[in-house]
């Protein structure tokens, strides 16, 4: 393996890591600003112009607050819980194609850290690991509210990962590939976006993404009206910050995944008819991709400050009695349409 290739990938990893952290930081500010707008009040506006320095102040507060580990807690697992949560959140973006290839001199640079041919399976594996961070933190806290929050997170994750996986199967029947790079490349232009072929699959996937990120109305694992703070009741300082950061990073990665799978990723209408150079098309594609991601993040926040939280029985009924049957019906319908198309229109 060439050293230049390794350095190129390390630089790309560093850039994605920094961008991910920046978006997670300023998502906290955006969330509070949007909440303020919807509740007819000002959001944070004291730290810098329009409160632009508020995330830095929050980060400083997390760093300098006192570290407290409760008596009776399992110290190693108590520390390991938020560590697993933030690591799994950060590594999940490794297979997302952020743009087409850049041509610099005689080198062709791919804007994807790892182009594995089972990219979707990798994403599901990493997402499934994320719940271990919540389970370990809740169990190790030696607190009944934390444990109940952790158990809720595990059962919620299992329930909604099944429906999410089934919705992806229908998409794979259309794309015939597990590679995210190939799935995005197939959606060139506008009419080839998978949302037109899989609208029901997208809705199921999006609802499951809300549940996997523990966002309202699916934030039962940290439901403060019933469980104080849920699985992170006993956490303080930067460990609590890591849990909060992982939630926002998961939201960012989920938005990137939805944009890649269903909304063309870096593709945009008339991209090949503008007469621009390949590098300029790539840069525009990256910008368009991030606009799509930010729109999804805004949607996450809009829903949070619009809908009430589900009861736990309602959450389970939605997962097992509605989403899973709908996802299975979507697979059957996709199979029928594919068969008709291949038989009569190929």
UniProtKB/TrEMBL annotation:
<feature type="transmembrane region" description="Helical">
    <location>
        <begin position="119"/>
        <end position="139"/>
    </location>
</feature>
<comment type="subunit">
    <text>NDH-1 is composed of 14 different subunits. Subunits NuoA, H, J, K, L, M, N constitute the membrane sector of the complex.</text>
</comment>
<keyword id="KW-0874">Quinone</keyword>
<feature type="transmembrane region" description="Helical">
    <location>
        <begin position="280"/>
        <end position="303"/>
    </location>
</feature>
<feature type="transmembrane region" description="Helical">
    <location>
        <begin position="248"/>
        <end position="268"/>
    </location>
</feature>
<comment type="function">
    <text>NDH-1 shuttles electrons from NADH, via FMN and iron-sulfur (Fe-S) centers, to quinones in the respiratory chain. The immediate electron acceptor for the enzyme in this species is believed to be ubiquinone. Couples the redox reaction to proton translocation (for every two electrons transferred, four hydrogen ions are translocated across the cytoplasmic membrane), and thus conserves the redox energy in a proton gradient. This subunit may bind ubiquinone.</text>
</comment>
<keyword id="KW-0520">NAD</keyword>
<keyword id="KW-1003">Cell membrane</keyword>
<comment type="similarity">
    <text>Belongs to the complex I subunit 1 family.</text>
</comment>
<keyword id="KW-0812">Transmembrane</keyword>
<feature type="transmembrane region" description="Helical">
    <location>
        <begin position="323"/>
        <end position="340"/>
    </location>
</feature>
<keyword id="KW-1133">Transmembrane helix</keyword>
<keyword id="KW-0472">Membrane</keyword>
<dbReference type="Pfam" id="PF00146">
    <property type="entry name" value="NADHdh"/>
</dbReference>
<keyword id="KW-1278">Translocase</keyword>
<dbReference type="InterPro" id="IPR018086">
    <property type="entry name" value="NADH_UbQ_OxRdtase_su1_CS"/>
</dbReference>
<feature type="transmembrane region" description="Helical">
    <location>
        <begin position="77"/>
        <end position="99"/>
    </location>
</feature>
<feature type="transmembrane region" description="Helical">
    <location>
        <begin position="160"/>
        <end position="178"/>
    </location>
</feature>
<dbReference type="InterPro" id="IPR001694">
    <property type="entry name" value="NADH_UbQ_OxRdtase_su1/FPO"/>
</dbReference>
<feature type="transmembrane region" description="Helical">
    <location>
        <begin position="190"/>
        <end position="211"/>
    </location>
</feature>
<protein>
    <recommendedName>
        <fullName>NADH-quinone oxidoreductase subunit H</fullName>
        <ecNumber>7.1.1.-</ecNumber>
    </recommendedName>
</protein>
<feature type="transmembrane region" description="Helical">
    <location>
        <begin position="6"/>
        <end position="29"/>
    </location>
</feature>
<keyword id="KW-0830">Ubiquinone</keyword>
